[in-house]
């Protein structure tokens, strides 16, 4: 998803040993997990409903369809753009001043700007909503700094287990966040476009802030300043492209993340369109029909809020599928199935999922949509970690940090451009974003086949001369 965790830069064994001897231990890792999890609950509450709120503004200003698509894409991308520009800056600050103050700043910013999102909704202010999303992106240092915190607190041997906490917090937050967003709407009363998800998200981030203030110690030793790679290092780019298959893997990763951003940013609008077309309860899956009846029973005659509840329920389902696949399937396959094979299988699954999504969109079929989502998300859960692992293993250790940073920048660009492209296509045809994503994933599959014959691990022989 748009705030997905990024691959940390590698550390030397000496550094790891030194930092592991600090006072931070399992208790600190539990606190950082809870802090990130509670913060991501708020993120999961707000992200699914942003496109529908933007659509409401477009109707208010009587925008044309293509203008609506660009507006939604811009609002969705503004968060990722700010992260792309400023997360490295926060990282450098955390090296100088410590992880804890940067995490506190990020959580304080999230608390304020999520609450501002609720205010913007209540006031029907498009300007304030852009300020809220841009501000949340600027303050979005929590994930990257939490990864650095875990790197400080673990040894090289148990680093992967520590980083898995961030993935678990993300998956759980994105599963429970939309559910709690629906509860916030139900509790807030039958009003047009409820501001309560924004207020509740701010509340959760505030709880995370208090948890960090009182329970989170500093992980970085004074004087242990570390060097950070540049945001988009030309030398790292040149070195990466000279190593066989690295350029291919970077482009494949861009295509995969771009396609997923395309899907993720238009899913809410697709669900909204389907709900509008429902003519009988028989055409709606049982659990969604029950949810709609429950909302009506509580007096939520507002069609906008009923649609929001359905959107949040579907996103919770998406998060649950992602949690199951990442937590059980990927973990069991890791080390047993080659990364290239996993990436190809995942790309094929994602392609099939996008094709079915396009068909579901054209037919306005909710059942088919849910099946397609499960297939597509399962594919992406296989593709993303496999590509990151391949890029790391194929990289020269001397420039590995720069290449992994380049991979992160590539993914960030994809998360910025994907929503703009996808929402513009959606304004033309409801199935167009998914057809386009399927074509891009076919290209990704073809590119992955070029990496099969190459050695996966870096050796002196693979280094470009």
TrEMBL record:
GO terms, molecular function? transmembrane transporter activity
Recite the UniProt keywords alphabetically: Membrane, Transmembrane, Transmembrane helix, Transport
Region (Disordered) residue ranges read: 1-21
Q: Which Pfam families match?
A: MFS_1 (PF07690)
Using the UniProt record, give the first listed, main subcellular location: membrane
Q: Cellular component terms, GO, for this chain's entry?
A: membrane
Q: What is this protein called?
A: Major facilitator superfamily MFS_1
User: Per the UniProt entry, what species is this protein from, by scientific name?
Assistant: Pirellula staleyi (strain ATCC 27377 / DSM 6068 / ICPB 4128)
């Amino acid at each position: 998803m748009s705030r997905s965790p990024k691959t940390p830069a590698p550390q030397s064994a000496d550094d790891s040993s030194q930092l592991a001897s600090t006072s931070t231990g399992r208790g600190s890792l539990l606190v950082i997990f809870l802090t990130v999890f509670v913060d991501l609950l708020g993120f999961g509450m707000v992200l699914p409903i942003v496109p529908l709120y933007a659509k409401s503004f477009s109707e208010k200003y009587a925008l044309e369809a293509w203008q609506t698509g660009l507006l939604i894409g811009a609002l969705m991308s503004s968060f990722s753009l700010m992260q792309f520009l400023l997360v490295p800056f926060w990282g450098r600050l955390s090296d100088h001043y410590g992880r804890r103050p940067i995490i506190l700043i990020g959580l304080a910013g999230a608390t304020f700007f999520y609450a501002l999102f609720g205010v913007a909704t209540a006031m029907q202010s498009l300007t304030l909503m852009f300020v809220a999303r841009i501000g949340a992106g600027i303050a979005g240092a929590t994930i990257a700094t939490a990864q650095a915190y875990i790197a400080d607190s673990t040894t090289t041997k148990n680093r992967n287990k520590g980083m898995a906490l961030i993935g678990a917090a993300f998956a759980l937050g994105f599963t429970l966040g939309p559910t709690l967003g629906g509860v916030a709407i139900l509790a807030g009363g039958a009003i047009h476009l409820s501001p309560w998800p924004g207020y509740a998200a701010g509340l959760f981030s505030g709880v995370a802030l208090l948890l960090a203030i009182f329970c989170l110690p500093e992980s970085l030793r004074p004087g242990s300043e570390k060097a950070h790679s540049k945001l988009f290092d030309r030398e790292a780019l040149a070195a990466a492209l000279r190593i066989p298959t690295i350029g291919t893997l970077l482009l494949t990763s861009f295509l995969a993340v771009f396609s997923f951003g395309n899907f993720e940013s238009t899913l809410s609008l697709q669900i909204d369109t389907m709900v509008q077309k429902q003519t009988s309860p028989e055409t709606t899956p049982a659990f969604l029909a029950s949810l709609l009846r429950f909302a009506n029973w509580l007096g939520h005659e507002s069609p906008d809020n009923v649609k929001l509840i359905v959107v949040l329920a579907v996103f919770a389902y998406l998060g649950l599928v992602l949690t199951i696949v990442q937590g059980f399937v990927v973990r069991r396959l890791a080390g047993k199935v080659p990364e290239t094979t996993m990436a190809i299988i995942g790309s094929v699954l994602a392609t099939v999922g996008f094709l079915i999504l396009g068909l579901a969109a054209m037919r306005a079929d909710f059942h088919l949509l849910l099946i397609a989502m499960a297939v597509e998300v399962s594919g992406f859960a296989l593709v993303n970690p496999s590509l990151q692992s391949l890029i790391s293993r194929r990289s020269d250790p001397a420039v590995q940090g720069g290449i992994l940073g380049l991979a992160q920048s590539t993914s960030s660009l994809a998360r910025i451009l994907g929503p703009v492209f996808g929402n513009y296509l959606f304004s033309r045809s409801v199935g167009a974003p998914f057809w386009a994503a399927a074509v891009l994933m076919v290209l990704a599959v073809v590119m992955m086949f070029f990496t099969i014959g190459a050695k996966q691990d870096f050796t002196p022989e693979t280094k470009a001369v």
